[in-house]
Amino acid sequence: MTAAGTLADPLAARLAHSLADPAALDALFASHLEGVALRTSRALEACGYSGLLMHSGSLLPIFQDDRTYPFEVHAPFKVWAPLLDVPDSFLYFEPGHRPLLVFHQPDDYWYKPPALPQGYWTRHFDIRPWRDRDESRRLLPRSLRSTAFLGDALEELASWGVGDINPPHLIRHLDYSRAAKSPYELACLRHASVLGARGHLAAARAFGAGAAEFEIELAFLAACGLREQDLPYNPIIALNGSGAVLHYQMLETHPPAERHSLLIDAGAEFAGYASDITRTYSHRDADFATLIERMDHMQQSLCCGVKAGVDWRDVHLRAHHLLAEVLREADIITCGAEEAVATATTSVFFPHGIGHLLGLEVHDAGGFIRSPDGGDIPRPDGHPYLRLTRVLEEGFVVTMEPGLYFIPQLLAAARADGRSTRINWSRVDSLRKFGGIRIEDDLAVTARSCENLTRDAFRTAAGAS
Ligand code: GLY
Ligand code: MN
Ligand code: MN
Fold first, then answer.
1. Is the CB of 233 under 6 A from ligand 1?
2. How far is CA 48 from CA 51, 146, 167, 200, 247, in A?
3. Nearest to residue 346, comparing CAs of 330, 363, 360?
4. In the predicted model, is pLDDT for residue 118 greater than 50?
5. Using a 6 Å cutoff on CB, does residue 265 contact ligand 1?
6. Mean pLDDT, to the nearest integer, of 212-223?
7. pLDDT digits (tens, 9 = 90+) for 120-149
8. What pLDDT score does 21 carry?
9. Are 167 and 246 within one domain?
């Protein structure tokens, strides 16, 4: 990579910060691309198309304003190339041919146009810059009649003569195959995990020093070396009772008068791949610290059961059984574990799914697909928020994120129904101020077990700091 390339290419800057080795990524990228091309060729054949045109995404204007919403590149585009900030670029693929990247480089002096990409992946593409949309059409094949298009339904597609726009059966094929990650993707996910772990260590230090939620976020971002818009999702940084709000978003700028706990769910991104990590800390309360330890122990026991061939629905149901035991031991419920599960008392404290696919999107696509040709695998009855129902395969990357929360709305509902007598309300009332606990790691599934990307990343990050 040239010195000029290092300055101009945002991915090059990320590489430098992440300590990732460009040569190692280069070595892995060719076979990743081959795999993407092979499965795309099969999907196109199965669905009756001869080519695929993918759009990176558009800048969406804000109502009656001259600004746009932050840009998010479409995942079916970025699985081919780690381009994150290139609105209105196109990738065209025809089986047996080198992929064509039609790269949007407007002649603009209000905003800086993106530099032509350089680096480990670019030599596998035919890259052609364009300045306006008419020009981009001329760079594509003359006929797109049997080409499927994936992306925003741009007005000009009618005049471009594209075969079909976002055909669901093709999307289904592509999403299904995206669940198993290539060695290149696993390397990117490991780097995203190390960046995220660095952020978490800095955030924990900030919490210990008495920081406000917003200051904790700033510490996280600085340690990751990422802007907020570069993160795979808005960090959830919740002090005290706010930990009971599952996707808490407020980021208070002032520290609370009393400090009890921190729940931080925040991940980083590398080359378009996400980490999704949650930790919970007690501030000098030994009882809550013990509850966190129990949840951590239970989460690790669930991780131990992860390997290819495991039905994710069983993992979710087992989590409810293990949680019931934790609730019983901690004197939060008054009934036995079996009864707590059977009566959905555990769902009062753990209302979300045990985990989901992770990759180019934090909640990655394809979690319910039984087969590319049709049919979804339903969620177990009574578990409406589970995002993954498939049997695990080697290369799947999933999160493992059991939780135990004191959520006012769910507790009020339980108090008003038959579950009320199964809950120790004085114990619950004493724990509300802590909000809740979630421990979340990212796991790469192998034939006989799994690789815990997050625990490994914390070790790496702690060793380097
Ligand atoms: N960070 C959102 C989730 O854990 O699913
Ligand atoms: Mn998650
Ligand atoms: Mn999370």
1. yes
2. 9, 8, 11, 47, 41
3. 330
4. yes
5. yes
6. 98
7. 999 999 999 999 877 889 999 999 999 999
8. 82
9. no
> Binning pLDDT at 50, 70 and 90, where does residue 9 land?
low
Task: Say how many domains are in the chain.
Answer: 2
| 1 in any annotated domain | no
Q: Pick the last residue of a domain from 177, 199, 228.
A: 177
Residue 240 within a domain:
yes
Considering the domain architecture, whether residues 172 and 193 belong to the same structural domain is answered as: no
Q: Identify the helix (H) or strand (E) that includes residue 436.
A: strand 436-438
Separation CA 364–CA 177 (nearest Å):
11
Mean pLDDT score of the chain, rounded to an integer? 95
Which of 6, 30, 1, 21 lies closest to 124 in space, CA to CA? 30
Q: Counting Cβ atoms within 10 Å, is residue 331 exposed (0-12), middle (13-18) or buried (19+)?
A: exposed
Predicted confidence at residue 13, as pLDDT, reads: 61
- Is the same domain home to 192 and 133? no
CA of 264 to the centre of ligand 3 (A): 9
Ligand 2 centroid distance, CA of 458 (Å): 17
Tell me, what's the pLDDT at 374? 83
pLDDT digits (tens, 9 = 90+) for 193-207: 999 999 999 999 999
Are residue 167 and residue 230 in the same domain, yes or no?
no
Q: What's the whole-number mean pLDDT along residues 385-402?
A: 98
Residue 145 structural domain: 10-177
Is 269's C-beta closer than 6 angstroms to any atom of ligand 1?
no
For residues 39 and 156, state if they share a domain: yes
Measured distance CA(172)–CA(14) in Å, rounded: 32
Angle at 25 between CA 453 and CA 93, to 5 degrees: 110
Whose atoms come closest to the Cα of 234: which ligand?
1
Query: Of ligand 1's atoms, which has the minimum distance to the CA of residue 387?
Result: 5
pLDDT at 421 over 80: yes
Is the pLDDT reported for residue 156 higher than 80?
A: yes
Q: Is residue 4 part of a domain?
A: no
User: Nearest Cα to 275, choosing from 367, 353, 177, 199?
Assistant: 199
Please give the full DSSP string across 199-267, using - where no structure is assigned: HHHHHHHHHHTT--HHHHHHHHHHHHT--GGGSSS--EEEEGGGGGSTT-----SS--SS--EEEEEE-
Summarised one tens digit per residue, pLDDT across range 278-294 is: 999 999 999 999 999 99
Contact 320, 346 (CB under 8 A): yes
Global pTM exceeds 0.85 = yes
Ligand 1, pocket-test mutation among 231, 279, 399, most atoms within 8 A of CB: 399
pLDDT at 18: 62
Looking at the structure, tell me whether residues 194 and 138 fall in a common domain: no
What CATH number does residue 147 fall under? 3.40.350.10
Instruction: Answer with the one of 155, 177, 199 that is the final residue of a domain.
Output: 177
C-beta of 401 in contact with ligand 1 (< 6 A): yes
